[in-house]
Amino acid sequence: MPTDCISYSETNYFSKLILDYLEKKEELSPFYHRFPEIGNFEAQIKEKQKSFSSENRKVLVESLKKQYNGVEISDATLDHIEALSKDTTFTITTGHQLNLFTGPLYFLYKIISVINLTKILKKKHPEYDFVPIYWMATEDHDFAEINYFNLNGKKFQWNSTEKGAGIDAVGYLSTEGLKEVFELFSSEIGGGKDAEYLKFLFKNAYLKHSNLTEATRYLANELFKEYGLVIMGAQQPELKKLFIPFAENELLEQRSFKTTKENTEKLSNLGYNVQVNPREINLFYLNNGYRERIIKRDGRFYVHEKQIEWTKEEIIAELHEQPQHFSPNVMMRPLFQEVILPNLCYIGGGGELAYWLELKDYFEAENVPFPMLLLRNSALLQTEKQKEKRKKLDISNKELFLKQHELINRKVRKISNIDIDFSKQKEYLVNQFQEMYDLAEKTDKSFLGAVKAQEVKQLKGLDHLEKRLLKAQKRKLKDEVSRIAALQNQLFPNKSLQERQTNFSEVYAMYGQELLDTLFEHLNPLEQHFKILTFGTK
Question: Does residue 225 lie in a domain region?
Answer without folding.
Answer: yes
